[in-house]
Amino acid sequence: MIAEFYHMYSKELLFLIASLFLYIICRYFNQGETQLVKLISQPIHLPFSQMEKICNETILQNTEILETERYKLIHYIDTESCVVCELKAMYQWNDFLIKTGLEKSVQLYYIIDTRNHNRKELIAAINETYIQGEGYFDNTGIFRITNEFIPSNKFFHTFLLDHNNNVIVAGNPLNNPKIEELLIETIDNMNNKSNNVLSK
What we know:
By secondary structure, the chain is an alpha/beta fold. Helices cover about 45% and strands about 15% of the residues. It contains 6 helices and 8 strands; from the N terminus they run αβββααβαββαββα. The strands form 2 sheets. It has a 6-stranded mixed β-sheet, with helices on one face.
């Protein structure tokens, strides 16, 4: 009887499953598009003066661009993330910036929301890796408070800012080749425009 029922309604069931799948996919992408629009709707606030700068010999600052930097690459690590895991993998940013040739055009800033995390473990993780960038402990959640429009989706917690702190690329290029390509292309285009203006 079950086999007969399946035979009679198999096409309808497949159609229903396919329709449900498409609905979920469309909804997912629509939500992503809405979150992206929200992220780029206003400049990002960087209240560094209200955070604790991480001072450690393993933090390597790119002194060649500190005074003339045009782009800031922000990597925000929230309270829901495995902060120790992310810190131990931060060396990948060094390799990425060198591999792509962006180390002279981009300054990496990483902001760690330290609430709900063990401070000693965070410092120990930082001591285990060399990081090309400038780090801050956000002990009060001020970054999140002043940027309430940043989506909770971790995809949008890494972004490139222009000189006005507007988001021009969102997404982590370390695990997404398309984001890496978009990031490089965007910076090249922006640099070319700047050079054209200077040459006139």
